[in-house]
Amino acid sequence: MDNRSRPLAQFAHAPLMPLLIAFMMLQPLSTDLYLASLPSLASTFAVPASTVQLTLSLFVIGFGGAQLIIGPLSDRFGRRPVLLCGLMLYMLASALCALAPSIGLLIAARFLQALGCCAAVIIARAIVRDAYAPEHSARVVAAASTWLSLAPLLGPILGSYLQVAFGWRAAFVTLGLLSTLVLAASVWRLPETNMHLNPRATQLSGLMANYRIVLGSREFWAHALPGALSYGAIFAFISGSSFVLIRVLSVPTAWFGYCFAFGVSGYLSGTIVCRRLLPRIGAPRAFRIGSALSLATGMLFLAAVGVGIAHWSLMLAAMFLTMLAHGINFPIAQSGAVSPFPQQAGTAAGLMGALYMTVAFAVGTVVGSTHDGTLYPLALIVCTLGALIFVSVRAIASGAASTA
After folding, report:
1. Residue 4 maps to a domain
2. Which among 231, 240, 280 is positioned nearest to 260, based on CA atoms?
3. How many domains does the chain have?
């Protein structure tokens, strides 16, 4: 491991990087593993696509809202106890998903699953701030993200085969087994990394004070907002790609995983590019490059659809480039939004995550409600988000740099 990716001396005994990767993998696996099952869920429960989308949208709501609570809880009581409780909830909720007899109960179980998943992801982000030097955090996140990309890369492929062989319940059984393994590893090897327990973090006055500190920082918004918009762009494909590829472009269900994995390989490539760019040109310039790629991809996607191109290869190219841009944007956004707040790392990570999920919920809702059997609504959404990413990086980030 590169010295710039090593934890501080007091945590050198613990396998933090593998644990961080495992915690962060739960989120993409929670969505990507059952993407190929979305059309089947609509047929099984005899509901429209917009109802099935609620299994994603309610997950996003639960994930986003819980971050406002889990972050402060981990600042007050420590990372370890909050994480272990979250993993236990995730494990139980996965079992409930697998056994759900109706779409309503599945949606409710997905909401509970999101609360547990949220604990894992938020704690991972806070541990990066706790256990690594601030100047190395972006590189640590990029390194973790490179491995993290294996989850959305392999998840849809595995999910496609599980759907074809065993049906939609198999994905949730798999998630339950995985969370059990992560819980066991955490009990065994995860140390407490919060060395600055804040007794006031969960008191209303302390909570409001921490929120004011974080939300009043232009540096936070300069990173969190473009990062959230970039996540919204990839969530447009997460929520809409299975319906477009399988139902509109007639891609076989068994092939969907490979198609989605190709798009996700763009994210893997983007994190590698980010790791190369950071030591050479610095985070601000790398952020501008990533945002420019987001804009260019959206414009090209919309232009191609506008001239009548409707082919699976166009979808794959747009997914690949959008996720490539996110692979550059995300590590910079995450580290830049949390690093300035050593005493409020959990709160900052929670607020950032809540913003991500708010944007994702809005995007998923729009994708579901505008689906009309063509590629045009998805292309328009991705193009709009690309423009917003581009503008936010240059307007807010430039202002933050000038006042630093």
Report:
1. no
2. 240
3. 1
Evaluate whether 399 touches 218 at the Cβ level (below 8 Å): yes
Secondary structure of residue 202 in the 3-state scheme: coil
Asked whether the whole model's pTM tops 0.90, one would answer no
Give helix 312-338 / helix 253-281 axis angle, nearest 10°: 40
Is residue 398 predicted with pLDDT exceeding 70? no
Report the percentage of the chain scoring pLDDT > 90: 38
Kindly tell me the burial class for residue 391, based on how many C-beta atoms sit within 10 Å of its own C-beta (0-12, 13-18, 19 or more). middle
CATH number for 381: 1.20.1250.20
- Which pLDDT band holds residue 404 (cuts at 50, 70, 90)? very low
Please state, in angstroms and rounded to a whole number, the distance separating the CA atoms of residues 248 and 375.
Answer: 8
pLDDT digits (tens, 9 = 90+) for 52-78: 888 988 898 898 888 788 888 888 899
What is residue 257's three-state secondary structure?
A: helix
Per the domain annotation, does 321 fall within a domain?
yes
Q: What angle do CA 365, 371, 372 make, to 5 degrees?
A: 155
Tabulate helix, strand, coil % of the chain (nearest 5): 85, 0, 15
Tokens 């690093």 belong to: 339
Sequence-distant (≥ 6) Cβ neighbours of residue 280 within 8 angstroms = none
Tell me what the pLDDT averaged over the chain comes to.
86
Angle, vertex CA 272, rays to CA 267 and CA 305, nearest 5: 35
Range of the domain at 241: 12-190+211-397
Answer whether 357's CB lies under 8 Å from 182's CB: no
For residue 243, being part of any structural domain is answered with yes
Closest CA to 159 of 327, 67, 315, 32: 32
Task: Give the pLDDT confidence of 257-272 residue by residue, as tens digits.
Answer: 888 889 888 988 998 8
